[in-house]
Amino acid sequence: MKNKVYNYIELNKMLDCANLIVGLSGGADSICLISILQDYIRDNKLDINLYAVHVNHGIRKAAIADEEFVVDFCKKRNINLKVVRIDCIGLAKKNNQTVEEAGRLERYRIFRELAKDKGNARIAVAHHMNDQAETVLMNMARGTNLSGMRGIKPVRDEIIRPLLCVTRMEIENYIEENGLKFVTDETNFNNEYTRNSIRNIVIPTLTDNVNVRAVNNIALLAENLSQIEDYLNIETTKAIRDVLLHKDNVSLDVKKLDKYHAVIQSRVIYEAIVGMAKKKKDIYEVHVKKVQELINKDTNKQISLPYGLYAKKEYGKIIIDFVDADKKRIEKNRPTITVNKSDIKNELIINLDEDIYYKDEIRRLKAIKCSVVDNNFSIKDKDSDFLKCFDYDKIKECLDIRYRQTNDVIVIDGLGHSHRIKSEFINRKIPSRYRDECILICQGDECLWAVGVRRSYDALVDNNTKKILMIQLMFD
């Protein structure tokens, strides 16, 4: 068995470190682990400092005896030991956690604190193949995706699990063959704990009545699924780069997303929701499916998601954002800036510093520059997305820089026909959530330029124009 663990350590490059911290409860698993690791360091003549950490959870009467056993064990083996006592039940109540969860989180916090203090450290814990099988079965029963089916990783960040390649039976045999003593935690037989019931009831039933190698087969399945998950993560990352349009919120290109297999679609959507929520808890398959169904729904279909998020289909996109974000955009103070023609002698800069909608994204508009120049066709030809030229004499006495209002119209052709701005936004497929973000240059109710959308046919520069008003956007 020792050679099997040695090979597993090398295969997964577990001991590329200067300091090794071992979680040592005193049970058979952790005693086996630290014994093999001490031998491995000695046999391979490695310059690695070995430390043990014993966490006394303060739950069991025998906890002090276990602590004393660990102290004696490490003293005989010349292993540096740190003992930490915690109030596990108190922590569970304080943080609204189960006793199991509170103990596990606090143990790892203590391990990581010591690892950080030592530097260049790895943390070894004694999970084995049976723990792997228990984890996979528990995740399956609770409901999980492929990620949960991969179970426990042999290496994750600074955590290593050298015994993940062996079963509990192999560990017990190793303990017996090497005459190692250990302590037994009587709570391991309390089947009120979820993991204990799987360990003491479900696994024995499978091995006795289905297949004696059930544990090995479940662990092998987890290993295979782990490789598949790694591959799918790579493909999902590629797909996200392909379909993600914006990063201020999540905007997914429906046509591109629809070309991917449903498995990749669901993973992209899951990552999109998690990316906005900044957490994975309470985001389930049902939420992903609801968003996925929007691909084939009509525009403006919308669903609710956890954490105040929503998903909506808008003109070939699926938007995922916070409901409050839309409300804040609509409710924020939006003063009208009025500019008199007479104030624009040569050049006038109007400072704004506003987040506005501009060509399918939100951009920071720092200012608008207004300039009056003599008519020159080389100047008129400068018309661009960022700069528009108007006949100065055709403009009324003042211009308003503002956001849309109910009665706003825009001239759409040389005959003077006009549309309401609302209709123009719909025709141009401007998402409804962004229509209140568009900056307008207006004279009264008439819009001369809906920035990033279109300009009016009114006040165009022609051969009779004497002076040109140039209005230029100045983005951050």
Write a structural description.
Helices cover about 40% and strands about 25% of the residues. It starts with a helix and ends with a strand. The protein has 16 helices and 22 strands. The radius of gyration is 33 Å and the shape is elongated. α4 (about 90-95) packs across α5 (about 100-120) and α6 (about 130-140) crosses α10. It has helices at about 1-10, 30-45, 65-75, 90-95, 100-120, 130-140, 145-150, 170-175, 195-210, 215-245, 255-260, 260-275, 285-295, 325-330, 375-380, 420-425, and strands at about 20-25, 50-55, 80-85, 120-125, 155, 160, 245, 250-255, 300-305, 310-315, 315-320, 335-340, 345-355, 360-375, 385-390, 400, 410, 420, 440-445, 445-450, 455, 465-475. It has about 475 residues and is an alpha+beta fold. The strands form five sheets. It has a six-stranded mixed sheet, sandwiched between helices. Strands 7-8-11-10-9 form a five-stranded antiparallel sheet.
Short note summarizing the structure:
The protein has 476 residues and is α+β, with helices and mostly antiparallel strands. The protein is built from 16 helices and 22 strands. The strands form 5 sheets. Strands 3-2-1-4-6-5 form a 6-stranded mixed sheet, with helices on both faces. Strands 7-8-11-10-9 form a 5-stranded antiparallel sheet.
Secondary structure category: alpha+beta
Tally of helical segments: 16
C-alpha geometry: elongated
- Could you give the count of β-strands? 22
Rg, alpha carbons: 33 Å
The helicity comes to 40-55%
Mean pLDDT score, rounded? 89
Strand order of the largest sheet: 3-2-1-4-6-5
- First-to-last CA distance: 64 Å
Unreliable stretches, pLDDT < 50, 5 or more residues? Answer: none
Largest sheet data: 6 strands, mixed
Note the beta-strand portion.
15-25%
